[in-house]
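Human: I would love a firmer grasp of how sequence relates to backbone shape in proteins. Could you go through the record with me and say what the backbone is doing? Here is the record:
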Amino acid sequence: MKTLLAIGDSHTFGAELVREGDMDSIENTYYAYPEKLGDILGFDNVVNLGKSGGSNMRTERKLYEYIVSEQPNPQLVILGWTTLGRFEYCNNINENGEYEYDTLTSWSDPVFLEDEFDKNFFETLLPIVTAEDLLAQKYRSIFSCQTLCERYDVPYLMFDVMFNTKNSAMLSGDDDYKIWDGTNKIDQQFYNHINHNNYLEEDYWSYIFKPSNVERGVKMNGGHANENGHTIWARKLKDELQARNIYGE
């Protein structure tokens, strides 16, 4: 059985494809780009581990969990890197001894929290979140995932969801950005060791909303692209995989 594994945020999951505002229904994945790419390339099993609000840290973790599990390794991995500023942390251990996780974001104010303990907890973790923005958690995750795939001889392709996922993270509103410019020495070392043949320069959002693709029916469903957008992105990934000699002929 040939398996395609895709991990990322809401754009990989397929949020709002079924209906506007529906971020989490599993039905969304039936129409998302991983399923479409699997059909194009002849996969008989597509595993979509995208999650609305998922962080880059989660993407790295889910890849490791899958590869070291008892399941056979996938024949292709697609990773979509999301916005900076999302931070994953362990909040519990369940009855099976497995870790449970939650997410904080550096641009959220703790107004939605219900009690003083939660507010204090949020404010304690917030400096960690912003510190992770300023050092290249993203580049570290990219390098880690790259190393894992190459170690297990699994073909892979990575991309950025949006242009600003490359270099910025919101702090407290749409117009207030903290710039992460990649000039830190640690950032540069990780970036220099990324296999750029397996990392697209063009981001998902910029590509699918090109005027030529809008003319082909790409529209917004709430805050996400419609099914036409996912179809076009799947074809783009197929072409890139073949042109880069990663997967397919």
